[in-house]
Amino acid sequence: MDFLFNTNVQFFIAAYLVGGIPFGLLLAKKFAGVDVKKSGSGSIGATNVLRVVKEQNPALAKKLGAITLALDAFKGIFILLIATFIFNLSDSTLWGIATLAVIGHCFSPYLGFEGGKGIATGMGVMAFMLPIETAIALVVWVVLAKTIKISSISSLSGVLVLAISSFFIHPQMAHAPVIFICFILFYKHIPNIIRLFNGEEKRV
Q: Could you tell me which of 51, 82, 55 has the C-alpha nearest to residue 65?
């Protein structure tokens, strides 16, 4: 058990456990009295919180959706900030932390290893690790969100643009963590992709 005293391992565990906190589920239950796991898409993310709570209180839905988005994005960044500015950990360790924060959100230990789609947490850690690429991805996301108004299309398009742009902006870096995180995000969106092909995906 000596490995548990290793700083890197401790941060990896912390990233997974903090990443797994289901803020959307907790906020919706506390302030709207609804279980987002049993409504809408069943996701614990901001989009489903917005969609489910909107049915009974549109104003509250926007607030809870925004707070969920912010908290889901920040929970990965929080661990990365401590790892970087207090412990001065290596880039490879930071990428491990980023990846495990996303895994924690998507496969939460508090929800029987189920979870959200990972977009907010993924974009949060990417904003810390690859700020330029993330800025480009967010522009794509905003444009598509305003025009197409289908969350899965705008989100996955942003993820794809981020991954591709990273090869041009940082050609020398190891891209395995970026590709792996993007793979997780696409994997969690398989039901959405199927609904898109069937013309059943709902607008937000």
A: 51
